[in-house]
Fold this sequence. Notes:
Layout: E1 2-8, H1 14-23, E2 27-29, H2 37-46, E3 51-55, H3 67-76, E4 80-87, H4 90-100, H5 107-113, H6 122-137, E5 141-144, H7 150-162, E6 169-176, E7 187-190, H8 211-218, H9 221-243, E8 248-255, H10 261-273, E9 278-283
Parallel strand pairs: 1-3, 1-4, 2-3, 4-5, 6-8, 6-9, 7-8
Helix pairs in contact: 1-7, 9-10
Amino acid sequence: MQILLISGISGSGKSVALNVLEDAGYYCVDNLPPSLLPELIKTLSLEEHTNTAIAIDSRSAHLLSNLPQTLQVLRDQGHDVRVLFLTASTDSLVARFSETRRSHPLSHRLAMELASNVDLSLVECIEEEREILAGIQNLAHVIDTTDLRANQLRSWVKAVVQIQRSPLTLMFESFAFKRGVPLDADLVFDVRMIPNPHYDPFLRPLTGRDQPVMRFLDNQEMAQDMYKDIETFITKWLPAFKQDNRSYVTVAIGCTGGQHRSVYMVEKLTKHFQKTEQVLIRHRRLQ
């Protein structure tokens, strides 16, 4: 069975991800206590389900300590177990809770634990939740949904579940520094010093995937030197990530607007590494 465990910070898009998987034919369970996971999988296996998505969050905080061992047991039984963790910046989460006018799931429980009649602030709840779920995040493929549209998140979740299982998946992601560094990045490279196609009126509306922009950057010695340096660095250190039993490594490439230089570099690196590695690609600022 393919088992996808979905977790993450409240407000980061877990419901959107779960709905995508349900539409794709997954048997979905929301807010399952981790202790019930083995029995659920046993039951679903007997019923011949092949794809299951299970959401586990901070409401089961006291039951999360044994989750890594539980996941390993399921893998030892032959199941394809993956963990997807959604997160977002605190400012973005506060804005989302403000829009929906909902309280944070931890607010009342934390107040009771502190023997206080005053609910904790939203920011305090978010930071506490990050601490509670840090162990799961370390096991997972992380998606930062800070500036993502819902349709982008849906596409990225589909890409994660469709990719073949391999010892390590290399993720290349372009982004705009003016919107902040993605929270899901393991390695970050800055390509803002490369000549910018934005200042050419003809190239400005295009992207790093369009041939005129690619030709422009192909002819920039600095761009080619930067590409070679990044490719050499990743090639050198990728074996160490594999030896560390990492399932995913996210390489984020940033430029000012996330449209030309970073997109070009991600496309070029992807083309190189997909010859030997399992590769995924994301562009945060493109449709």
